Amino acid sequence: MAATISCVPGRLAVPCMRLLRVLPEYRRLAPEAKPRARASDMIMGRSELLRGCAALLLVLLSSCAPSVVSSPSSAAAQRRPPHHLVGRGRRYDAIFSLGDSYADTGNGPVAFGWYNITTNPVMRPPYGSTFFGRPTGRNCDGRLAIDFIAESLGLPLVPPFLLAPRTGTGTTRSSSSFRRGANFAVGGATALDASFFHRWDPPGGSTFPLNTSLGVQMRWFQSLKPSLCDTTKDCKELFGRSLFFVGAFGVNDYLLALAANKSVHEVRSFVPAVVTTISTAVERLITEHGAATVVVPGVMPMGCAPPVLVVFADPDPAAYEPRTGCLKAINGLVAHHNALLQDALRGLRARHPAAAVVYADFFGTVMDMVTSPAKFGFAEDALTLCCGGPGRFHYNRRVFCGDPGATKCRDPSARLFWDGVHLTEAAYRYIAADWLSAINSPPGASADNRMMAGATDAAVESSC
Q1: Domain extents for the chain?
Q2: Residue 97 pLDDT more than 90?
Q3: Reduced to 3 states, what is the DSSP secondary structure of residue 280?
Q4: Which of 271, 283, 333, 444 sits between 20 and 30 A of 264, alpha carbons compared?
């Protein structure tokens, strides 16, 4: 099967690559509350969000300003930075990842045709400046959680599938680049297929012009599989020794609906469909492909993301969580998603006890950073972005990180948020440490898998 990007009809507006993302997990929220912001408020540059671009929730937003960082001694219980996420042995031979911009290591710019410095801010400095010294297509100043996890397991950074050269026939990707894993994640990807969102298309445009959904990514994986293993036995052995990531998915599904001026109550109605799509993909990896360890991240607290706080600003003080200033309704939507997702994963463990199906808590660690930033060495104004344009939280709808006029904070390691909804390398390092802990102790895994999990205990011991 050819590994092609599935495009759907509609106007693909290049300037519209900068959407956002929305959602997270705060149990005591008012899920029925409707964000007051209208879709017309979400204008990115000259392009209207609903006129052709509401899909690319990838790049985005914000600037920097002089930041005041708490002294380590001022934190009552400061968490030690996990600078050395290094395992003593290799448990996995490869990593295969499906997801959105939180895991995208370079597919997004290729998928959307922006893999050059003139059209894509993510391909301009200061992206990648903290670690790589150059932009790589990651929506970050450096490494993502998946990068840290690969390093900790002694594996190479997971290569983006769409950047690999094609075979001589030009129909499939060369397997030589993917013997240690492949990354299919694309910034802006949804769990549901793009066709689901066309009901909200504006006249003469398309709400979702490009389809890089979970289903499309699964087909990319299927197209690569024959070049990696020949027989069912070989594939089972290879993928049984591999670590799979599915997600985080769901953020973009919900944001597209909210951008179409749907209420949180309306969006909640299709959360079960999103979760079912995710759990079905996980089950297929186990039953059809022999995956033995699948990690499924939940959604982070997007009600705390600076662009979301600006776009969906609510004049009612009761709409905000008093301690953090995060939007209750949007965090409540994500709480619902994460709860249903965990229930679905418990069902998978019951049906497939030999597999390790791991829920990776994205929400908890990020909310801890928002609530107690000094504990992580972050500035007290945790919701202020590091890179972007002038404005509240240093977020500007027309000046994004990498754009002319954007500025970067002096010390990204003192910031939680990088360019809008995306995080800094410093934040991803902590998240990776927590996910490694979950991978090391997977619930419901068989005895053999539990013994294998012990091989990476050293990674967490040396990182926390």
Answers
A1: 6-65+74-461
A2: yes
A3: helix
A4: 283
